[in-house]
Amino acid sequence: MAPSDQSRHSLVPGFLYSSKIQSHLSNNTNHGLPLLPSSSSIASYSSSSSLPVQGGAKSPVILSPQEKIRLFSPAYYAACSAGGVFSCGLTHMAVTPLDLVKCNMQIDPVKYKNITSGFGVLLKEQGAKGFFRGWVPTLLGYSAQGACKFGFYEFFKKYYSDLAGPENAVKYKTIIYLAGSASAEVIADIALCPMEAVKVRVQTQPGFARGLSDGLPKFIKAEGASGLYKGIVPLWGRQIPYTMMKFASFETVVEMIYKNVIPVPKEKCSKNKQLGVSFAAGYIAGVLCAVVSHPADNLVSFLNNAKGATIGDAVKKIGVVGLFTRGLPLRIVMIGTLTGAQWGLYDSFKVFVGLPTTGGSAPAPVK
């Protein structure tokens, strides 16, 4: 193959797509390395394959049913980013009341002793409307974070797989999941940090501001524009381990469910069953995420609430044990539900635009 022809193809690690496609691609290799086929070859394969029938039509794995979205193309990453906006923005906004109580329990555990009393105090002092205080920066911040988190995860997962090569990509796929999610989260938190800073200040300091429109100018006036990123290091400390656990454990649990619980391959499962697997695996991943990232979450809440505070001040005030335990039960419930819903919504969006759900295709043996 001439270099100009070779440059039009990409190496596709086996665990990124269906094992049926891998078997098909093994007959079309360049020096033993599988290539991403052209639209015409995929269309030809789709029409003759035994993949599940959806709505009376064959459902190709690499391309959407409309054959408009090609895996690993700019349109594919754009679709994944849009799915991230849809899943993260809406879910975080929906759990704003839980997040509000959690943040206040972390800042003032004497006043907000537990979940029940926390909701009672907020209802008494601020009324029912107070439960959604800070919902605008929550929606905007986590929508931006979701776009970067999911879009760049898909990008880095493919990028690192290409660097490793097909054999190593399959052998070290968990490391690739971890590296890809960590890289994506570094970018995602830069997008999230300003809105997170305003959100915490609005939620934990009554009378500071009604929301984003007046809270952002007040915050910048008090802390300066650079103050919006005062919590970036602890935010990375919270979100990077969280996201590494979120994606790597999700991918692993999905694969385990299809291997040990469901007696048929993923490709033969209905879309509804696949989405059920996504939610279940997401919930399990969310519980693990909450435990891993909780100490840093306490630090973020403390630093964004107290002007001029340092990490040392937070550890001294909260205590080492408190960093791991304060507000943890509520956060497990919140993050478990949140993460399960996010994966369900994300994969629902992918199905809606004609893409396969995430994970679960067993890799073919490397020869």
From TrEMBL:
One of its GO terms (biological process) is response to osmotic stress. One of its GO terms (molecular function) is mRNA binding. It is found in: Mitochondrion inner membrane. One of its GO terms (cellular component) is mitochondrial inner membrane. InterPro entries: MCP_dom_sf (IPR023395), MCP_transmembrane (IPR018108), SLC25A3/Pic2/Mir1-like (IPR044677). Transmembrane segments: none annotated. Belongs to the mitochondrial carrier (TC 2.A.29) family. Transport of phosphate groups from the cytosol to the mitochondrial matrix. Mediates salt stress tolerance through an ATP-dependent pathway and via modulation of the gibberellin metabolism. This is Mitochondrial phosphate carrier protein 3, mitochondrial.
